[in-house]
Every structure is written in structure tokens, then in C-alpha cells.
Amino acid sequence: MGNDNLPTVSAQAGRALAESSVTRARDAYERFAEAGEMALNAFETSMAQTFEGWRSVMGSSRETAHQLTDSNVAGARRMREQYEAAGARLYNAFEDNAVHAMAAMREIGHRMLVAADTNIRANLDFAERVAKAADAREAAALNLTFLQEQSRRLTEQMVDLHQTTGRLAREAAARVETP
To answer: Which residue, 171, 46, 155, 59, is CA-closest to 104?
Structure first.
């Protein structure tokens, strides 16, 4: 079953190639993780700017409402006050819910990113150890250990995510129930 067309590579050269590949993969992941963090920061900045825009739009709408209703009779003045109060309550509720929703999404996203980062780093560490393995028996033992650790790690991450989402849902329900 040999293929005479393939070049012969010594075990030492193969190990060096594997180690160098793992190092390049780790470096590439570090750049990817840094870019992901920059993208998350840009998203959060963009959302903050969006909310600031909503604030300014609501402020200009209030000014326009003030100018129009000041020229009307006292009944219109009462309607304006009721409209403003209702609008302010609606806007404050919208902003409050949006802030809480963003905070919850940020927390869940952060936990997922930390879990993914932990798993990728564990995989890279495993690949590095396998590349340095002396023989197939050591590689198989490393694989068994890695699979056990990964199973434990994934279980802990899922429990953490489940507890976090449950807590955030309870907090949201408590905000809805409390006027």
C-alpha cells in the first residue's frame, strides 16, 4: 500500500513540521481573537451611538411638540403634557429595556467567547502535545485524556451558560413585574 511518489520525511522532520504548524495556528488564532475583540468593541460603540441618536431624536421631537402646542388653548396644553408624560414613560421604558437587553446579550456573548477561547486554546495545546508525542501509544493516551478534559470542560460551560441565561431571564421577569 506504499506510494512511491510521496517524499520520505523523517520522524524528526515530521514532528518539527507539526510543531511549527501548531505554532502558526496558535498565532493565527491570537490575531483572530484580537480581531473578534475589536469587532465586539466596535459593535458596543455602535449601539451606544444608536441609543445616543435615539435620545437626540426624542429630544428634538419634544421640542417640536412644545412649539406646536404652546400656540393652542389650555386643553391642548393638557393634551401635550399627557402626551409628553406618556412619551417620556414609553421612551424611558424602551431605553431601560434596551439597556438591560444589551447588557444581557453582552454577558451571554462574553461567556460564549470565553468558552470558545478556552476550547480553542485547549485544542491548540493538545495538538502541540500530540506533535511532541514519542509514539502512537503516547498520542492515544493524550487523546483519551484530552477527550475526558474536553467533555468536562464542555459540561461546565453548558451549565454556566444555562445558569446565566436562567438568571438573566429571572431578572427580566422581575423588571416586568415591578412597575
So the answer is: 171
Q: What are 119-142's pLDDT values in tens digits?
A: 999 999 999 999 898 899 999 999
* Tally of CB atoms within 10 A around 14: 11
Euclidean distance between CA atoms 81 and 124, whole angstroms: 63
Contacts of 18 by beta carbon, 8 Å cutoff, 6+ apart: 127, 130, 131
Q: What is the SS3 assignment for 36-92?
A: HHHHHHHHHHHHHHHHHHHHHHHHHHHHHHHHHHHCCCHHHHHHHHHHHHHHHHHHH
Residue 166 or residue 66, greater confidence: 166
Confidence of residue 39 (pLDDT cuts 50, 70, 90): confident
Which grid coordinates belong to 7? 517524499
The candidate with the shortest Cα–Cα distance to 127, out of 144, 111, 143, 115, is 143
Please count the residues of the chain: 179
